[in-house]
Structure formats: structure tokens, C-alpha cells
Amino acid sequence: MKGKSYACRKTYEGVLRKGDYFPTPKSIVWCSEKYLKEIIPLDATITEPCCGNGQLTKALKEIGYKNVIENDLYNERKDILHNDIVWSNLDEWASDYIVTNFPFSKWDDCVRAFLAKTNLKALITVGRLNYLSTQSRLESGIWKHLKEVWCYSRYIDYRTAERDDGQFNVGAMSTAWFYFTKEEVENPIIKFVDVQKYATLGNIKEK
Fold first, then answer.
1. Pairwise CA distance, residues 53 & 42, whole Å
2. Which residues contact 167 (CB under 8 A, 6 or more apart)?
3. Taking phi first (over 0 means left), then psi (-120 to 50 degrees means alpha), and beta for anything else, what does residue 16 get?
4. Nearest to residue 21, comparing CAs of 99, 132, 106?
5. What end-to-end distance do the CA atoms of the chain give, in Å?
6. Residue 167: exposed, middle, or buried by beta-carbon count in 10 A (0-12, 13-18, 19+)?
7. For 29-57, b where at least 16 C-beta lie within 10 A, e where not — what string?
8. What is d(CA 109, CA 146) in angstroms, rounded to the nearest whole number?
């Protein structure tokens, strides 16, 4: 399976939307290096539970993280784990941190799974900024644990093919890193990630 495109509404095997499968541009990790290293020590073990073909993992290793556990329930790669983040016991993975790009249709379930795991310290995941205006997330208490939001300075079209240079097509969806902790937070801090120099491919031409 190649990557993760967000535009299609058909379901995948009756479980996930086909559009949940899209590659994550490596540049959003490179441009967030300062923020990531303020939270996660270089010698820490990180779990990437929705790793796809490994773009995000490669980027983490390129900025100095060597201990990254790759997992993807729906990818057939032989060199990774295939656990369901919602139901498996992530505490047994000997990892304190999660850095990932959750499937958008399962985003809430995955965040709640993180909050339920006792040993995990921090979750950093890609999410849509319009998630912040959802009443159900306010009532469920998810936002009580949202410590920071790192907004990308350009809209990213996640249908962009995997590229080692980190460049991406510009889209119409505003996204960010969402940083969750186990402690309760009164109000999250908003930060900005300048990804302008990688927004170089224009718009994807629709067929």
C-alpha cells in the first residue's frame, strides 16, 4: 500500500476511509525540529503507530532520533509491527512518546487511546485546525490535555507523492501538530511552523 490521500470518501475494508492513507511530508518534521527537541530527548524511544511507508520515521531519524518503533495496522511491510493503537497495550512497547499522523477518520479514537495508556508521556500528531471548533471534543475532555498547537504556515495537500526533498503541493486544508500530555492544561499555546520554502509544487492538477 502506498502512503496514506485525504480527498476520497470511500471506506477501506469497511474500517477506514480510503482517504486516510497519505504520505506525510518530511519537511514538517525538519521545520519542527526545535519544538520536537524541546519535548523529546534524542535518546528517547518514539513510537510511530501509523507509519505507512515510513516518511515521518525517516525524517525523525534525519534530525537525530534513532530509536523509533514503526507500526501500522494496515500496511503489509514485513519490518514493522501491526498492532491496533486503539486496542493494543502500547505501554508494553517501551516507548514514552508518540509522533505520528493519525488517520483523520480515527483521530479522536487514537487520541483517547493515548490518554488511556498510563506510561506514555506525550503525543504529537498531525491534525486539522478545524478540529478545534468541534463541540464533541470539548465535551469529551480531549482538549483538557492539549498543551500546544504548532500551525503550519501553508496549507499542505497531503495527496503530494512521497518526496525525499520534503517539497509538497499546496492544498486547501489548514493543519498543525497537536501536542498532548497527560496533565490537564488550562489553555494551549499556539506556535507557528514556517514551511514556506517547501511549498514549491503548486496545486495538484485534478484529472
1. 22
2. 25, 27, 160, 198, 199, 200, 201
3. beta
4. 106
5. 21
6. middle
7. bbbbeebbeebbeeebbbbbbbbbbbbbb
8. 15
CB 59 within 8 A of CB 68: no
Q: Which residues, 6 or more positions from 189, have their beta carbon under 8 angstroms from its beta carbon?
A: 147, 148, 149
- pLDDT tens per residue across span 131-151: 999 899 999 999 999 999 999
Q: Per residue in 166-181, pLDDT tens?
A: 999 999 999 999 999 9
Which pTM value belongs to this model?
0.88
